[in-house]
Amino acid sequence: xxxxxxxxxxxxxxxxxxxxxxxxxxxxxxxxxxxxxxxxxxxxxxxxxxxxxxxxxxxxxxxxxxxxxxxxxxxxxxxxxxxxxxxxxxxxxxxxxxxxxxxxxxxxxxxxxxxxxxxx
Length: 120
What we know:
This protein is an alpha+beta fold. The chain has helices spanning 2-25, 110-118, and strands at 27-34, 39-46, 70-76, 79-87, 92-100, 104-109. It has one domain (26-118): Immunoglobulin-like (Sandwich). It has a three-stranded mixed β-sheet. Strands 2-4-5 form a three-stranded antiparallel β-sheet. Residues 6-23 have low confidence and may be disordered.
């Protein structure tokens, strides 16, 4: 049984190391809203995915990114994403390709909001 418990210990250590490595690679996505409009919905999906998934602001109180506010989404797995935001008027801003490898910041200015709502 000593060999069995030793083997089990090695397996647990290996799994912990893999989990720690993936956690260490996770990034924070920071949205800085200087657009002049509050953002009422925020969606993040893997690039090419047909489903947006849940509104990432649903858990936030209040559930908006206010004017001048910076909001962070923690533990985003590295990869290529598409983002959709919905402002107070119901206008959708879609950014088709965001390559998140490390912590990533989106400066949402009025110009950027105008450009991404008119391009879709």
